[in-house]
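Recall the central idea of this unit: under ordinary conditions, the amino acid sequence of a chain determines the structure it adopts. In this exercise we apply that idea directly, starting from the sequence alone.
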Amino acid sequence: MQPMQPMHNIPARGGLNYDETPFLAIWEVTQSCDLACKHCRAAAQPIAHPEQLSTAEGKALIDQIAAMQIPIFVFTGGDPLKRPDLYELIRYSAEKGVKVAVTPSATPLLTREAIFKMKEAGIVRLGISLDGSTPEIHDTFRGLPGAWARTIQAIEWANEAGIPIQVHTTISRHNADDLDNLCALFEKQKIVMWNVFFLVPVGRGQLDDLLSGEEFEQVFGKIYELSHRVSFQIKSTEAMHYRRYLLQHNLEERKMGHGHGHPHGAAQEYEPGAPTTDGKTRAMGWATRRVNDGKGFMFISHVGNVYPSGFLPIHAGNVRETPLAEIYREAPIFKALRDTSKLEGKCGACEFKEICGGSRARAYALTGDPLAQEPCCIYQPKNWDPELEQQASAFKHAAQAEPLVTL
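Accordingly, the structure predicted from this sequence is:
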């Protein structure tokens, strides 16, 4: 009789085994940017770093992305438009069969011509940030008067160019009450996806802006309610416990006979540009219920350092020295993050840990331990005893146990 395969080794739906290949890779093509956003992970600067990956090194990275058959590759920053070879890199990716999305900053560089040139070069989706339904909210957050108007204009140009648009909103105390108005605005702008990003206090992201666990649940309820009536998809980032929330409410709705649960499923990512049966280029449903920092996801910095995510700054290797696949598959931090048996606190005891696992980036930002329990989750697992957990923790420290991860 064959031994049961550990849950963390089961391939994701869609055929991907996250121990071998991530669903999503993000490349910070530059840290250069003309904005000074309050939450900026990169604390971006106007001038590019002199050691950022060259064009040739960027193409070598794209070759590795293609070889690993990673479904989605995102060019981010900083501001990708600050990189002179951006269009060349997009075109090279398209030639290699790599589906590239770009997330430019809303600066004067984001012109109609730039958007059409990215389309011609081969991008499959444009990601743009909008953090408020009004200029007052958004421009304060982005640190640049006029950013809101420029963002709206860019969305209109992208629609004109026929590029699917994904809008990113960072949720914190500054805009948690603005979600209804944001969705009303998005309906007018013909976006295909709203990516709701929950703040991780790194870079310029401030702890005072972080929502409490109770406030997370309130926002979950709001986006759950909105997702039933908007025309675009809604996904969450760094709020893995929203998947738990969705499953709980799907089950409750079925028990009460209110249909078949949530229209968007339990927790999905989507492949940019994939056609749907209604003829729209919204996305092909691609369930990636277990994606987490380092687990179906990786981040490559402007100088080639590889991390589990841009918000979890634990260095796992550099593409100038080690093949990307080797870093993802073999680096101790990546392997530890993919092993749910190593999760600590109530995350380790939680019956939802295989689909959730909590934000490893937020755990690290608030505790210094990437395997600690999610700091902003109020759910109490059925088999979790806080007193026993405290005793185990005290024993662990007394015994001076070896750390789970070598940072």
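The chain is about 35% helix and 15% strand.
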